[in-house]
Amino acid sequence: MNAVIALCHFCEAHGPNAIFCTQTLRDTKLEELQLNQQHVENKICSACNSLGQTNGMYSKDNESGATFLSTQTAALADVQLLVKQAAVRSLSCEINSNKDGGFVFFGDSSRGHVLSHTFQVNDLQARGFYQLFSIIVLMKDKYFLLNTKPFLAEHLRKISADIQASAKKINDETKELPRQQRLSSAQILVQTPRSLVELTGEENIFAYLHSHFSWILLAGSRFLTEHVTFGNLPWLPPQSSDRPPQQRLTYNITLPMIQKYEETINDPEREEFYSLRHVKEVVRREFDTVVYCALTGIKVEII
Predict the structure, then answer these.
(1) In what residue span(s) does the UDENN FLCN/SMCR8-type domain sit (predicted)?
(2) Helix, strand, coil tally for the chain in percent (to 5)
(3) SS3 139
């Protein structure tokens, strides 16, 4: 899947930024990348750093030949600015009010389309007793991103839930410490936001994120596939009185408003829409909305 998945964090000292990015490399070799980026601001804050500017993690799928690379900032220069802009929006203005972590879609054709999942992580030493994180999926293909949203939402929510569960465990252990010990430790770290490793207590948290982000990129490319076979299209009327062959053009994801011919051929009371022109005559002013819902996978019911 030609996309970038990034973990973003709102630092109390430096503001919103992406701290961990995973992307697919197909035509670019690792030797051609310059991980030591001098123009990137070197932040000494532990909360803004994950792997460092010169380190990275990569995995390779032998079947597809794709390489999945994770770095602190996007490895490709033309993607860095897009990820940074998406990170700022996902942690400032494009936030779902759901505390459990909601999803927001935003973007355009020039800056890419983004699916953002914002969530809170418990931190007794932070302002408001939590830190704000988000996971964003950035890609150019708007409709592919919208059609794979259920798949992405399911797995991104699992990742955020694991992070929150680990942080809650550390948070509960801290509450059990004597009050004097909690106050002394808070005074030491009050000026330094804690990193994700400290929040979760997981030393290999970024290796965990790399493996999951890489799998999502690999599985996402196989989520929407096409199988072309012989026969009439399932939403076209029959060309003869004979029943058309079973082989048809099928999709893993179909338009909800299109009903398969086999399901309704023996139901004379069920009205069928065989052309967009017929649909436009029925819905009229709402035609654009109906077409958009059909393309993005939203169920349409015409009463």
Answers:
(1) 49-303
(2) 35, 20, 45
(3) strand
Q: Which of 220, 242, 272 is the last residue of a domain?
A: 220
**Model's pTM, two decimal places?**
0.69
Say if residues 196 and 209 touch (Cβ distance below 8 Å). Answer: no
141 Cβ contact partners less than 8 Å away, ≥ 6 residues apart: 2, 113
- Choose the final residue of a domain: 171, 192, 220: 220
Best CA proximity match to 139, nearest among 163, 115, 120: 115
Query: Amino acid identity of 267?
Result: D
Convert the pLDDT of each residue in 168-183 to its tens digit: 988 888 776 665 555 5
Measured in residues, the chain has a length of: 303
pLDDT in tens, 196-251: 998 898 889 999 999 999 999 998 887 765 555 444 444 444 444 444 444 333 33
In a domain, 260, yes or no: yes
Three-class SS state of 250: strand
Give every strand in the sheet of 56-60, ordered side by side: 56-60, 67-71, 15-25, 4-11, 130-139, 112-122, 102-108
